[in-house]
Amino acid sequence: MLEGIERINEVECEVPVGYVPGMRVSARFFLSEDLEESLEEGAVHQLANVATLPGIVRHALAMPDIHSGYGFPIGGVAAFREETGIISPGGVGYDINCGVRLLATPLRVEDLTQMRALVEELFRTVPTGVGAESRMRLSAQGLEEMLVEGVPWAVREGYGIEADAVHCEENGQMQDADAVPVSKRARKRGMPQAGTLGSGNHFLEVQVIDKVFDPKVAAVYGLEEGQVCCMIHCGSRGLGHQVCTDHLRVLESATRKYEIAIPDRQLACAPIHSPEGEAYFGAMAAAANYAWVNRQVITHEVRKVFSRLFGIEYEEMPLVYDVAHNVAKREEHDIDGRRETLYVHRKGATRAFGPGRLEVPADYRAVGQPVIIPGSMGSSSYVLHGTDTAMERTFGSTCHGAGRVMSRTKAKKSMPGKEVREALMERGIYVRATSDASIAEEAPAAYKESDKVVDTVTRARLSLPVVRLRPLGVIKG
């Protein structure tokens, strides 16, 4: 363990006040002993820096997939009081509302006799890679409505069914969205990209449930062993990136204007209810709505492919749930016996609300929110459920994925993409990508083992496993 860090228990560590100057609260991260070797000193330093920000509540937090990011570490969670706190793009990231959704199907693994043909058809249908453009013909007015309304707009336009919105966080629509502070440049970048997968670690996977941990909760979510599912991981594309870029410039000036002392310029921020803070929050929420629509349009195309190839009905592929893992939200939490309004930043962290919360869909409320944790091409993905412990300890938050342990540059040098693809094929996983280079940089070895990450949050009771999914076919950007 790094010097100055105290291990509280087998899965939790504390960074004490004083680790960096100006800390208002301590920082805590969840990491099992067998993941210690993956811990980056820089990521811990970033987490401690977050603890210096005004209005922070309890602790700066990080999940077991922690690694260095822009300002905040990836895997970071921080909540700020509405009256005295700040809003910071570094706590959300450039890919606003990068998130994951899971679609169920009525198919069994034995029905997939032509996996290569299925993956190739999905690859042809879903625009993928850097600069990929949608087949949608979106008007300026349509984009405006999308930014404000999110998934309900997409459903109204014929891209899905009404139940889809119910099974998204925030019903697929952040009510605080404001299209006005979304720049012309951001709109121009977003216009041709709604319904595209993008590049990097984004993917579309065909998976099979190979283990059920909790049959009762699995039944509530409509999941069972041997069932074929589809997982979609992507975000707000160029529009979200531009929103972050635009408002970072403004908030760097705002940090000086409001005399907020920060140890790192990447933590640029503004008071929540300042003009600059409200403009960023409104634009961020609009970009989050765009991301939900992006995943919704991809869902629409995936359903059509499955309907065409397997003769199943469009409605027979229900959306299990859609989670965001790069976003800031206004939420109510119990703090020292009193309900408070907080602005919770989750960057590379997933909401994991427990049973009874009204934000959880009514049909899932008794067991808690579904939590979707993707693997890394060759490793398993998981569905977990939120817990009361998460509500008490982490503002209802858990991990978001495996977490990188190797840079993309190093990954590409370690093993050629062709060899990665062939190795996965030997394991029965068919991978299709825009290039072998994109496969190499996302090789399974570049990530922590998802099993260990999930084991850590399970032992901490931040979320509990429901099912495990094994990849069968993968599309990478």
Automatic annotation (TrEMBL):
Cofactor note: Binds 2 manganese ions per subunit.
Residues annotated as signal peptide: none
Listed cofactors: Mn(2+)
EC number: 6.5.1.-
Positions of the catalytic residues: H400 (gmp-histidine intermediate)
Residues reported in the UniProt entry to bind Mn(2+) 2: H233, H325
Example of a GO MF term: RNA ligase (ATP) activity
Function field: Essential for tRNA splicing and maturation. Acts by directly joining spliced tRNA halves to mature-sized tRNAs. Joins RNA with 2',3'-cyclic-phosphate or 3'-phosphate ends to RNA with 5'-hydroxy ends.
Name of the molecule in the record: tRNA-splicing ligase RtcB
Organism (species): Methanofollis formosanus
The encoding gene: rtcB
